[in-house]
Design a protein that fits this description.
- It is a single chain.
- The protein is of the alpha+beta class.
- It has 1 helix and 4 strands; from the N terminus they run E-E-E-E-H.
- A hairpin with a 2-residue loop joins strand 2 and strand 3.
- The N and C termini lie far apart (37 Å).
Length: 56
């Protein structure tokens, strides 16, 4: 498999969405600023953005 690529595609306060392109497909992961761990991963960018927008 190829190497995973990551890029930030959205942010809402301290909750950015990272687009992750892997050999298995494209995923959108929500992280907390400063954390190396994914809070939640989605197949849809719209779902990831909605999750971020609802975080307070």
């Amino acid at each position: 498999m190829g190497k995973e690529k990551q890029e930030q595609v959205y942010t809402h306060g301290m909750w950015p969405v990272i687009k992750r392109t892997t050999g298995y497909g494209v995923y959108y992961s929500v992280v907390r600023w400063g954390s190396p761990f994914f809070e939640h991963t989605f197949k849809s960018l719209a779902d990831a953005i909605s999750y971020c927008d609802n975080m307070r």
